Amino acid sequence: MDLKLRDRICLVTGASTGIGRATAVLIAAEGARVVATARSLSALGSLPDAIAEAGGVEPVLLATDFTHDGAPERLVADALALCGRVDILVNNAGGSRPMARPDDQDAWQESFQLNFRAVRRSSELLLPTMAERGWGRVINLTGAVVAKTLNAATPAKAALESWSKAAAGHYAARGVTVNCVAPGRINTAQILDRIHPDEASRQDFIWRNIPMGRFGEAEEAAALIAFLASDAARYITGTTIPVDGGALRYAF
Ligand SMILES: NC(=O)c1ccc[n+]([C@@H]2O[C@H](COP(=O)([O-])OP(=O)(O)OC[C@H]3O[C@@H](n4cnc5c(N)ncnc54)[C@H](OP(=O)(O)O)[C@@H]3O)[C@@H](O)[C@H]2O)c1
């Protein structure tokens, strides 16, 4: 299937590693010009070569830390100044935040800033520009939205899904879609290094939750993101699609 991404401009946040990096490479391989972000330019150092190997055009690299005040505003202004427009916004930067203390105010603040406010702000700055051109895609990475343990990311991701649905309705008649992709357990640094650092915990989780019997790969999430970014997905909006190997329980 031709995803018709040639000449599209796609901003992917958190593209240094994991799902964001796989998405940046795939969408670039499909012909789009990618604007890739991470907190430091050095973290993005090997991305241009990976994109070139996949046959994509050279990406624009920008350093952005979304926990800093004004970061979404600066990022959007820089992306528009360098590329003229953004057609596709993949809000991928984010992460799980298990809490050592239930009342850790800094953890709540940091997680909502990264996982909800920065995503909403970047989107609300770009959505009107997409609507003016009559074409646009916003794809937000969420995850579990009902948790069994305290995790400062879960309510933030729930807020993001709720906001995304409302934004999707607001822009639906103007050629712009807003969707969420909810990974279950994908083999990335946060899952392998922090959430399931040992093999026993991975196997136990898989046995209890994942009928496919394995964690997913970043490329398997990127495939859905690229499809949602495409013209073929124009009648899909306001929804959340899991990439989770058929997980039996979503509230983990
Ligand atoms: N992997 C999973 O199974 C899973 C499950 C549920 C939800 N998700 C969601 O999917 C998305 C990607 O997950 P992942 O596992 O691929 O993550 P990851 O491997 O931990 O990568 C996270 C990316 O976000 C960037 N980032 C982190 N903190 C940032 C900040 N303060 N400002 C700007 N950028 C920041 C990182 O860049 P630098 O560190 O280089 O700055 C990195 O590129 C996240 O939103 C995550 O919540 C993933």
From TrEMBL:
Gene3D superfamilies: NAD(P)-binding Rossmann-like Domain (3.40.50.720). InterPro entries: NAD(P)-bd_dom_sf, SDR, SDR_fam. It holds the Pfam family adh_short_C2. Belongs to the short-chain dehydrogenases/reductases (SDR) family. This is SDR family oxidoreductase. It comes from Lichenibacterium minor.
